[in-house]
Amino acid sequence: MNKNFETQKAPKAFRTISEVAGELDLKPYVIRFWESQFKQIKPMRRKGGRRYYRPRDIDFLRGLKDLLHEKNHTIKKVKDTIAQKGKEFVISQPSKRMIERSTSKKQNIKIKFSHSNHKILEIKKLDSEEKKQQINSLLKSFCKLRDQMLARANL
Q1: What are phi and psi of 123, to 5 degrees?
Q2: Domain ranges (residues) in the chain
């Protein structure tokens, strides 16, 4: 999973379709298709028709992905399940296997340095919150250093 530290949002923040697709490892057209098939998916829309998904919508999409991709249910079967058991059943669906996979999955972090001819720093795995904080601190230091260098270049 790639993390772009410049676009991290609060857990309750609304997400664009691209952000949701990246988080769920789906293509945006799949999410749009599911919207046409399941009336329970109702992202908020702003001017220009851009979709913004609430955390609840994302949880529902995650449950749909589990039922359709992991458990290989058909769309018709999922619709019948929703009619019988409700939307909450789908939201509670992400299986233990998906949760284990998401927690044990290696998190790849790529940092592209534009000033160094496309050199990329890649960190394969983050095990702890402490390491995440260290990396965030390091990135902030790099940003400050870059800003100082740019300020000197503009003198």
Answers
A1: -110, 120
A2: 5-104, 109-153
For the chain, where are the E strands, in sequence order?
15-16, 44-45, 51-53, 109-113, 119-123
The CATH number given to 5-104 is: 1.10.1660.10
> pLDDT 10s per residue in the chain (155 long)?
444 434 567 767 788 999 899 888 899 999 999 999 999 998 998 888 888 999 888 889 998 998 898 888 999 999 998 999 888 888 887 644 555 555 555 555 666 655 555 555 556 566 667 777 777 777 778 778 877 887 786 65
CA atoms within 13 A on the CB side of 21: 13
Q: Which pair of structure tokens corresponds to residue 31?
A: 């999410």
Which of 84, 73, 89, 92 lies closest to 34, judged by CA?
73
Nearest CA among 96, 106, 99 for reference residue 131 = 106
Per the document, the length of the chain is 155
Amino acid type, 147: D
Give me the amino acid identity at 35.
E
